[in-house]
Amino acid sequence: MTRYILPLFFGILGTVVLVSLGTWQVQRLAWKTDVLAEIDARIASDPVAVPIEPDPDKDRFLPVTARGTITIEELHVLASTRDVGAVYRVIAAFETEDGRRLLLDRGWIKTPQKNAARAPVDATIVGNLHWPDEIDSYTPENDLAGNIWFARDVDTMAAALTTEPVLIVLRETSENDPPVTPLPLDSAGIPNDHLEYVVTWYGLAIVWVIMTLYYLRRLRKTKKA
């Protein structure tokens, strides 16, 4: 009987640990789902004037509205969409009626339209403040000569266009037939992998139980032999 104690102990211990990890991920999944719902609700709420000194943490996703001129000063950020594939995000300098210069993510254009002329236009815009975190160790250096950027780094883009380090991701514009298709901000780009972790940990727990029972069965057969 004693020969079964140690395998049974580790079998039970491993199962408890794996089930606990799976249960913790279930709780994390519920928490993350609530967080994403709150973000979506915040994004879609009524817009306000752009704060004088917005805070990247407190004001992230804040819906704002402004009136001004979308200039011809642009940065092109290589991106992709599900339906079109490779596109460029157009980041333009936006001059407000009260004299501020802000960054405006107008949306996307197809790659052949990169060098097409886009005239300055007066418009009322509605969008959301955002400070994207898109740079990691795999991000290439921006091709400044070719005006091809690989991430929306607000501080660097602001320095390039001589604007405040404030990015508005366009949602609505008063332009007639805008040449750039808006790509509004939503929570879809925020990772939520907790369901995969739930399946992984519970799956490992099932495998652990099966392997433990298999090993105990082998021990029993060995004893009989």
UniProtKB/TrEMBL annotation:
The record gives the membrane topology as:
Multi-pass membrane protein
Q: What protein is this chain from?
A: SURF1-like protein
A family per Pfam: SURF1
Xref: PANTHER family = SURFEIT LOCUS PROTEIN, SURFEIT LOCUS PROTEIN 1
Residues crossing the lipid bilayer are 197-216
Q: Where in the cell is it found?
A: Cell membrane; Membrane
Keywords assigned: Cell membrane, Membrane, Transmembrane, Transmembrane helix
| Annotated InterPro entries | Surf1/Shy1, Surf1/Surf4
Family as reported in the entry's similarity comment: Belongs to the SURF1 family.
- GO CC term, one of those recorded: plasma membrane
